[in-house]
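Notes from hallway chat w/ T.B., transcribed later so I don't forget. T.B. wanted the structure written out for a chain they're using in a teaching module, and asked if we could keep both sequence and C-alpha cells in one place. Agreed to drop them here.
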Amino acid sequence: MTDAEDPNLKASMSPEELRRHMRALGYKTQSDLAGAIGVSRSAVSLWLEGKVGVPRPVAMLLRMLVQAQRRVY
C-alpha cells in the first residue's frame, strides 16, 4: 500500500468541523488560528476551502484543545 492509499494519512477533519473548532476555541480569523498553531494563513485558508486536507496532527491538536476546554474541574 502506498502512502496515497493509506486511509490514516488522508484528511481527518472536514472544513465544517475546522470552522466549529475555530469558533469554540475563540479564533475569529484564519490569521488567529494560523499564529496559534504555527502555520501560514494560506494553509488555514486552503483547509477551510477544502482544497487541502487538514493534516492529522493539526486535527488531533484542535480536538484535544476543544475537549480540554469542555472539562469541568
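Follow-up for T.B.: Residues 19 and 37 are 15 Å apart (CA to CA). Might be a good example for the class.
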